[in-house]
């Protein structure tokens, strides 16, 4: 099994973005730190800050993970963050689609992630 990364299309991104927002709001509410209304507002603000241009947002890389031609999950990498010091990037999210978990896709993602990190390091040095 080979896991690869590709850029999502606009429809996939829209679905991912809505699911990300919903999961983030649920997490904020579950932590008992804020009401659903306040969490939804924070989610919208944070999304506007981090992804102001959607897929074309500077410093953000969003990929669809595929295994042998089948979409299996998502990877979101931040090359920079408005809240972090310069030169600091990190992984925002790695998600294997729920129905496909436990099959080793996450573990197989290491190699494509390393390839992306090498490309990014070369580009942003």
Features:
125 residues; alpha+beta; Aminopeptidase; 4-stranded antiparallel β-sheet; 4 helices; 43% helix
In angstroms, what separates the terminal alpha carbons?
33 Å
- Percentage of residues assigned to helices: 40-55%
Q: Sketch the major β-sheet.
A: 4 strands, antiparallel
User: Could you tell me the number of beta strands?
Assistant: 4
* Number of helical elements: 4
Strand order of the largest sheet: 1-2-3-4
CATH architecture: 3-Layer(aba) Sandwich
Unreliable spans = none
> What is the CA-based Rg, rounded?
15 Å
Order of helices and strands: EHHEEEHH
What is the CATH H-level superfamily?
Answer: Gcn5-related N-acetyltransferase (GNAT)
| Content-based structural category | alpha+beta
Provide the number of structural domains: 1
Would you kindly provide a brief summary of this structure?
The protein is of the alpha+beta class and 125 residues long. It has a single domain (3-123), classed as 3-Layer(aba) Sandwich (Aminopeptidase), CATH 3.40.630.30.
Structure description:
The chain has a single domain (3-123), classed as Aminopeptidase. A hairpin with a 2-residue loop joins strand 2 and strand 3. It contains four helices and four strands, in the order βααβββαα. Helix 1 packs across helix 2. It has 125 residues and is an alpha+beta fold. A four-stranded antiparallel beta sheet has the order 1-2-3-4. Helices cover 43% and strands 22% of the residues. It has helices at residues 10-30, 36-50, 105-108, 110-123; strands at residues 3-6, 60-67, 70-78, 90-96.
């Amino acid at each position: 099994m080979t896991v690869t990364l590709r850029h999502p299309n606009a429809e996939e991104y829209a679905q991912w973005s809505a699911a990300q927002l919903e999961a983030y709001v649920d997490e904020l509410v579950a932590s008992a730190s804020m009401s659903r209304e306040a969490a939804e507002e924070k989610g919208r603000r944070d999304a506007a800050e981090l992804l102001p241009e959607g897929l074309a947002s500077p410093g953000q890389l969003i990929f669809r993970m595929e295994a042998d031609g089948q979409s299996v999950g998502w990877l979101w990498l931040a090359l920079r963050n408005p809240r972090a010091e310069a030169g600091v990037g990190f992984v925002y999210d790695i998600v294997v689609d729920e129905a496909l978990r436990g099959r080793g896709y996450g573990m197989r993602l290491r190699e494509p992630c390393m390839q992306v990190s090498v490309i990014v390091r070369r580009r942003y040095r």
